[in-house]
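Holo prediction — pyridoxal-5'-phosphate.
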Amino acid sequence: MDKKDGFLLNSYARFENSFDYGKGSKLYDHSGKEFIDFTSGIGVVSVGHGNRQLSEAISSQAEKLIHTSNLYNIEPQRELAKRIRDLAGFDLYSFFANSGTEANEGAIKIARKYGQLKKRNRYKIITLKHSFHGRTLASLKATAQIDMHNSHFGPFPDGFVYAETLSEIPHLVDEYTAGVMIELVQGEGGVEALPVNQVQSLAKELKEKDILLMIDEVQTGVYRTGEFLASNLYGIEPDIVTLAKGLGGGVPIGVVATKLHDIFQPGDHGSTFGGNLLATSSALKVLEILNIEKKSGELNRKIALFDRKLEETIAKFPRVFTKSVGAGLMRGIGVVSSIAVADIVKEANREGVLLVKAGRNRLRFLPPLTVTIEEIDKGFERLHNALNNITT
Ligand code: PLP
């Protein structure tokens, strides 16, 4: 057995890198080598590494008070819930968890309770092919990638139905359907953005049938697609939204937010750590920083530049790439089947730019939302070097 991970369980196929510190979109390993981070810890480090404003907010909160039980009022938690509602622009009431999968578990519980109490025996949740909703048992079963439902972990919770396409969803609705859970831009599934008009007509149809629209914004949320929520970009007001990744800037936090204000009673749901002072005050600072980025036009400028760079890359390497996909700073480019995405990621890593794979054949870009023009230029220059090494 491979014991290279010492006493860690063997759950990741890791790269060799081990990072020492970071600044903005740059990471430095223990030998001092610099890397441009176009992964941001898979969409987490939204305000960049070593962000002074965030680290000061974290340390001053840590000095004051890190954690009290949810049995007591937690002021930054209340403030954050209000901020989420205000930025979303429609009524949302929040429950705070610690991760994306946990936020989705909360969403599933809300949909089931609503379906069973208000609608009698509705419990099924429809999800979409290639989706990814997390690793805990219900979120994993909600994930419509059957090969991930390893039977060793069974039996799984029941009641999930998988649609091949968005337009198939209405045909799968039956008297037991409580909700439909989708990502507007599928992250792990290939950075595929769903068509806006189809999403809007699905939202309308579900509303007419009083079936809950549940949008998993764990990856798309918190300005990743250019708006606070991808739901804002799509012009929809879902019944349930989940957030996590970018919200804490690296401090773990998850949220399930819903229009259904009265759905839970004390005892229905809970979390020891969820929404503690440290996590929620970090998230408040992240939102403050990103709101300024958005309002000043900086975020949109970076998105436009990133878009141009992706198109230039495709034009320069037409035998490697097909098309660009995604939205905002959640982007991917299709790689031709004869070239392994993993080989590009590996060579790019050697050249000093970090990227990840998505789906079967997509190269994924998730830079910090505060990425600078210099970092974008440098990252693409290194990617082009890597591609030249591979193709010549
Ligand atoms: N939902 C989506 C859309 C995700 O991209 C992820 C993680 O990649 C999750 C849920 C699970 O989040 P976490 O790893 O924080 O549990």
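READOUT: Residues 99-101, 104, 132-134, 183, 187-188, 216, 218-219, 244 surround pyridoxal-5'-phosphate (CB under 6 Å).
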